[in-house]
Specification:
Elements lengths: L4 H22 L20 H22 L4 H27 L3 H25 L1 H27 L1
Helix pairs in contact: 1-2, 1-3, 2-5, 3-4, 4-5
């Protein structure tokens, strides 16, 4: 398969732009994070942008692999629709958690995000095994984020 540079760059730009826009919307409220009571294993605040940037880059590559693999168009479209839905839900979570401080609603929203990413993972995996594998760290991080989110809700 020949590398399609324009499509790869677009696939990378979309999740990175979503993450960047979400970070811009919540940047002032991140200062509150160190003031919250947090559960054990809570990382320092600077870890989050590093991890999320890597995860968004992996999402972009996964979407590129799914979009360019020779699979039935309806399967690819369905997978990319779930991918887009999870990006939208992902975009809104930091606002619920950091800006609005709606920790329980943010947790439930995160559960929805986890389910959407799980479905996206299954669909991507069915199209391209490497695309599916690229989403596994995202699912792991969301599981950890759910632990942190629930811990903040219970402790604050």
């Amino acid at each position: 398969m020949k590398l399609q540079w324009k499509k790869l760059l677009l696939c990378e730009a979309i999740p990175l732009a979503v993450g960047g826009a979400s970070a811009l919307l919540t940047r002032g409220s991140m200062a509150k994070y160190p003031l919250l009571h947090r559960p054990p294993l809570s990382p320092p605040g600077w870890i989050f942008p590093v991890v999320w940037t890597a995860l968004f880059a992996m999402m972009g590559l996964a979407s590129y692999l799914a979009a360019t693999f020779h699979a039935p168009k309806d399967r690819v479209r369905s997978a990319l629709n779930f991918y887009g839905a999870q990006l939208l839900v992902n975009f809104l979570w930091p606002t619920l958690f950091f800006t609005m401080e709606r920790f329980l609603i943010a947790f439930l929203w995160l559960v929805l995000l986890w389910v959407l990413v799980f479905v996206t993972w299954r669909k991507f995996r069915g199209i391209s095994a490497p695309a599916g594998r690229l989403l596994l760290p995202y699912l792991a991080w969301l599981t950890f984020a759910a632990y942190l989110n629930m811990g903040v809700y219970l402790l604050n």
